[in-house]
Specification:
Blueprint: H1 2-23, E1 44-48, E2 52-56, E3 63-66, E4 84-86, E5 88-89, H2 99-102, E6 105-109, E7 115-119, E8 122-123, E9 125-127, E10 141-145, E11 148-154, E12 171-172
Parallel strand pairs: 10-12
Antiparallel strand pairs: 1-2, 3-9, 3-11, 4-9, 5-7, 6-7, 7-8, 10-11
């Protein structure tokens, strides 16, 4: 009987742990997780040493956009999203930001059906190789995925193109 109670207790504890971890957000392909930078806003700004004021997600991670994606066109798909995680929202949700950014935020539908947040018409991404909030390592980064070339720039409140701190990219994935 003790073995049955021990097993039952382990099953209950495992189920509770799984539920708790799934409620924390996990690692989807770029959803705005609750809990950090600006009281849960989808997009806000932060100052990064050597770069200046940049757009960040709700966790404080820098946001980027490639030169090649304009007018709501999404080209970063397939293996590209393993390095450049799209900032997405659940279907029907709207991006949130302070009044100074809100009017430039929008949504575009990705080829996989997800809703990706845009700023000034350009889709936003997180660079998975950034070590965390307060860092920008993907600015002026060039790479290639599935035969498509990209040049990435950190998004700033004035624009999502151009940049000031090249990071010396040039990788093909």
């Amino acid at each position: 009987m003790t073995a049955i109670r021990t097993y039952s207790a382990l099953v209950v504890l495992t189920a509770a742990a799984v539920l708790a971890l799934s409620a924390c957000g996990g690692s989807d392909t770029g959803g705005a997780a609750a809990g950090a930078a600006s009281a849960g806003q989808t997009v806000s700004t932060a100052t990064v040493d050597g770069v200046g004021e940049v757009l960040v997600d709700s966790q404080g991670d820098a946001l980027y956009s490639p030169d090649e994606e304009t007018g709501g066109k999404v080209l970063c798909t397939g293996s590209c999203v393993s390095i450049w995680a799209p900032l997405t929202l659940p279907v029907g949700a709207s991006p949130t930001a302070g009044a100074d950014l809100r009017t430039k935020l929008g949504i575009v539908q990705r080829p996989d059906g997800a809703q990706q947040v845009t700023y000034d018409g350009k889709p936003l991404y997180r660079f998975v190789e950034d070590p965390g909030p307060g860092t920008v390592t993907g600015n002026d980064f060039s790479d290639s995925f599935d035969g498509k070339d990209f040049t990435w720039h950190v998004a700033s409140p004035g624009s999502v193109s151009g940049g000031s701190t090249p990071s010396g990219g040039g990788y093909g994935y």
